[in-house]
Amino acid sequence: MTDILGNALLDYYHGNYTEDILTETNITEEDIMPLPYLFRSYKDMPAVERKALDLSFGKVLDVGCGAGGHSLYLQEKGLHVTAIDTSKGAVEVSKLRGVEQVEHIDLLHLQDKKFDTILLLMNGTGIFQKLEFVSKYLQKLKSLLTHTGQILIDSSDLQYMFDAAAEENIFISEDGYYGELEFTMKYKGVKSEPFNWVYLDETIFKKYCYKNGFDFEVVCEGDHHDYLAKLTNKN
Question: Which of 23, 130, 177, 213 is least crowded, fewest Cβ atoms below 10 Å from its Cβ?
Fold first, then answer.
């Protein structure tokens, strides 16, 4: 499988930045993912990400670390951080930028470790792929969390997109859950295979969390229908 994200991050890191990643979903037209944004510092991060970093404590797992910006910030604060990503290129860039402990591994394959804070940012629920897999991933996260630990994860309620479509008389299929999207990415003429990515509204996410033994609290709301949730083990 082509590592589009990793190739783009490596190009940018090595000074070969000539174009951005293009993304497209089954309900939206082509959009631009600017590479400089993936290398942003704390001051340029959205409110939900800054809040997550401010709340982080103890041993931290950064899931889907990308270019390593969140991990680097927490490292500089003195926290012990383990960063993981399924993109080889992202892992390489994170190492080159100074992330001390970074692994090329899928979250579901991580074993025998415990963390006080688990971060899943930049629509962290996307890693669940589809509604049917949410419980599977929550149980995996629970197995990696200390009893008094926290999961900090962000997502968005996409209902606003459907409301806007209705106002403009655009038809969008409502088969299944409206937050389930199919994405493709394109970079320098190479297009990825389609992949599933899910956005969870607060109500349905809370329901799944309760079902899987977590308390659920929204600790920050962003400017674009996004929010940061804190999940903790039920006593």
Answer: 213
